[in-house]
Amino acid sequence: MNKNIISIENIIKNLISKKYKLITVESATCGQLANMIGSFPGVSIFYIGGLITYSSSTKINMLKIKKSRISKFGTISAEIANDMVKNAVKKYNADIGISITGNAGPDNIENKPNGLFFVGIYYQGFTQVHKLNIDQNLSRNEKRNLVSQIALNLMYKTINNIK
To answer: Could you list the residue ranges forming a coiled coil in this record (predicted)?
Structure first.
């Protein structure tokens, strides 16, 4: 395993010890992130839950993202990843939030390439959005798994102030 990748088990143990409240909101990963988190015992201590907002209408209805922003930026964008995580954290009173939106392929969507993802991390009143370009030759599920693991690592590094 890459030395820069923290194991999911260690990330979960860290979250349990800190007792932060985490919310996840996913589009392209379709709940894969929530599934990874829920695979470990004790997560109810910190995990509020996860939303799957796959379509534009669920982003609008569940997260109150403005239709005009989706029209302007597209659902696969840093702006929408930012809106997703900020709105979910606010709605569910979480300390930490993770959002994922992107294109798992195989085709281009919204003129965005297969393999383009945006991960939003909310912590202590600030949001960072990370742009990921994932290998287009990976399968949809391989991309979803990889992006979910990267998202957890980005969150871990954020809350532990690791550059």
So the answer is: none
Contact status, residue 102 vs residue 76, Cβ threshold 8 Å: yes
Query: Whole-angstrom Cα distance, residue 56 to residue 43?
Result: 29
Name the strand (E) or helix (H) holding 120: strand 116-123
Residues near 124 by beta carbon (within 8 Å), at least 6 away in sequence:
95
Query: Model confidence at 51, in pLDDT bands (50, 70, 90)?
Result: very high
DSSP character string of 17-53: HHT--EEEEESTTTTHHHHHHHTSTTGGGTEEEEEE-
In whole angstroms, give the CA distance from residue 98 to residue 81.
9
| Residues 135-156 pLDDT 10s | 999 999 999 999 999 999 999 9
Q: Is the pLDDT of residue 1 over 50?
A: no
Lay out the sheet containing 47-52: strands in order across.
47-52, 22-26, 96-102, 116-123, 126-133
Cβ proximity of 121 and 155 under 8 Å: yes
Go through the domains of the chain in sequence order and give each one's CATH number: 8-159 (3.90.950.20)
* One-letter amino acid for residue 3 of the chain: K
Distance of CA 93 to the CA centre of its chain: 17
What global pTM score does this model have? Answer: 0.95
